[in-house]
Amino acid sequence: MEFQAEITDRLQYGVGDASYQAAGGETGIRKLVDAFYNAMERLPEAAKIRKMHPADLSVSKDKLTLFLCGWLNGPALYSQKYGPIRIPQVHSHLEIGSGERDAWLRCMQEALKTQPYTPDFKAYLMEQLYVPAERSRNRE
Ligand code: HEM
User: Does the C-beta of 135 come closer than 6 Å to ligand 1?
Assistant: First the structure.
């Protein structure tokens, strides 16, 4: 029964803007992204990807927040503010291998620890984020 309930929940995250709502809308996603970049500042394994970013993270935070709103089927706030985006292209000037990809995902996993989400939604997000993280990778 429990297993069945989990499957039902997971299917529902993909429906309409259910995932955007589960993430707390723009306010919740902004908190997640703050925690994500805090983890990037802190975790030794993320030092290399932190150095790829500007010293002041405010624009990076805003861009990732607004992107994730649309990515979770919420409003297309990124394109409204910054224009169209393609994930492989915006990362093509960076050297991203599987180590950098995993460091990025690790920061997200760390950030999720402090968010008021269900364990099921956290697991769903990590699974789904693997897809764009892998698409950002441009070397072995
Ligand atoms: C896989 C490892 C990744 C690394 C090392 C990485 C690194 C970076 C860096 C250094 C920037 C430039 C930041 C800035 O100039 O403000 C950037 C931009 C961006 N990244 Fe990533 N990223 C990764 C994965 C992802 C993923 C998985 C997503 C989405 C789920 C994402 C979404 C974005 C967005 C929306 C921007 C802003 C693009 C722009 O408007 O210039 N990134 N990334």
Answer: no
User: How many independent structural domains does the chain possess?
Assistant: 1
The model's pLDDT over 101-121, given as tens digits with 9 standing for 90+, comes to: 999 999 999 999 999 999 999
Q: Is 33 in the pocket of ligand 1 (CB under 6 A)?
A: no
Answer with the residue of higher pLDDT: 5 or 116.
Answer: 116
Query: How far apart, in whole angstroms, are the C-alpha atoms of residue 71 and residue 73?
Result: 5
Best residue among 53, 89, 90 to mutate for probing ligand 1, ranked by most atoms within 8 Å of CB: 90
2, part of any domain: no
CATH number of domain containing 50: 1.10.490.10
DSSP labels, 77-113: HHHHHH----HHHHTTTS---HHHHHHHHHHHHHHHT
From the alpha carbon of 78, which atom of ligand 1 is closest?
35
pLDDT > 90: percent of the chain: 89
pLDDT band at residue 134 under the 50/70/90 scheme: very high
Q: Which domain holds residue 115?
A: 23-136
Q: How far is the CA of 90 from the centre of ligand 1 (A)?
A: 7
